[in-house]
Amino acid sequence: MMVRAFAATSPDAPLAPFELERRETRDDDVVIDILYCGVCHTDLHLARNHGGFTTYPIVPGHEIIGRVREVGPQVTRFGVGDLVGVGCMVDSCQQCAPCRHGWEQNCSAGATFTYNSVDKRDGMQTYGGYSDAITVTENFVLSLPAELDPAGAAPLLCAGITTWAPLHRWNVREGSRVAVIGLGGLGHMALKLAKALGAEVSLFTRSAGKEADAFRLGADEVILSGAPEQMAAAAGRFDVIIDTVPYDHDVNPYLPTLALEGVLVLVGYMGPLGTPVNAGAIVGGRRAITGSFIGGVSETQQMLDFCGANGIVSDVEILPIQDINQAYERMLKSDVKYRFVIDMASLAE
Fold this sequence. Notes:
This protein is an alpha/beta fold. The protein folds into two domains: 2-158 and 295-348, Alpha-Beta Complex (Quinone Oxidoreductase, Chain A, domain 1), CATH 3.90.180; 160-291, NAD(P)-binding Rossmann-like Domain (Rossmann fold), CATH 3.40.50. Helices cover 23% and strands 26% of the residues. Strands 3, 4, 5, 8, 9, 16 and 17 form a seven-stranded mixed beta sheet that branches. It has a six-stranded parallel beta sheet with strand order 12-11-10-13-14-15. A two-stranded antiparallel sheet has the order 1-2. Strand 14, helix 8 (279-283) and strand 15 (288-291) form a beta-alpha-beta unit.
C-alpha cells in the first residue's frame, strides 16, 4: 500500500513530501487512516540526527490518532471505523520478562519503534505518523475513549504516558505531594494528571510569569528554583518529583525538597548529568533518583481510559503538515503551548 508522507532525507534537509510503501496486511494487523499526529521533540532530534543513529529517509511521528480502515482475519478487538491510537512502539517480542510484565518498551530483544526502527518480522524500515495511513499489529493499537477530542488526545500517546507511568509506578493518589520540574509538553501533562489523581501539586520553574498557566493546568503552587528562600521553604515536602527538563541540568537543588524516601524521576533527559550528584542528600533522606521511559501498552490504555473519565487532553496548536519545518524551529525556541498536532487531512493539499 503506497501512502503519502513527509520525510527528511538527511540531517540538513527540511521535511518534504515523500511516498512510502506500507506492508501487506498480516492476519493480526490493523490498517489505520491517520487523522492527527502529535509533534514530539524526539521527532526533531531524530530528523536532524542529534543522536547519531538516524536512518534516512525518516518519517517521524509517534503520537497517532486515526480511524480503522481494515483489519486482518485474526483481529478481534477492533473493527472498521473504530477510533484508535498508536504510540511510540509497534511491536515487541511478547515473550521476555519485561514484555510479560507489560513493559514492552523495555523488551529484552528490543522493541520495534514506530519510526526509525526495523520490523523484526520482515526487516522493513518503520515509518511514523506524518503520513496518510499506518499498519500496526493489533497488540499495539489502543482504543480511544469517545469522550476525548482526537486532536488533543494525540500527545497523550507520548507526553501523556511518559508522565503517567511514573505517577502510576509511585502510587500517586489523593494526599500525595508531587512536584513537576519544567512547564513544557511533558510538564503540562504531569500537572494535569497529578492533579486529577488527587495530589497536591507544585511546579518548579526558573522563569517568573508562569503562575497563571500553571494554576490553570492544575498546580497548587509555583516555586522559583532560582529563589533560595522559596527552595528552602520547600525542604522535605515532596513524595515524587517528575523532572521533565530535556537537557543536562543540575538536579542537586531539588533533592532536599524530597520527603523521607521521596523519589526524583527523570523523564525528559537521557544523557549524562554534568554536575555530580550529592550522595549525602540521597543517603541522609533515604531518597532516590530514578528514570522512566514511556510506558507499556496496557499502562497506556489505562492512561487513556483515565483521561477519558476525567476529560484530560493536551493543550495543542493544530497545524497543517506543510508548516512542520517552521514548527520545528518554534519548538527549538520553546514557542508552543504546549504541543503541536498535525491535521493529516492537510496531506491531501
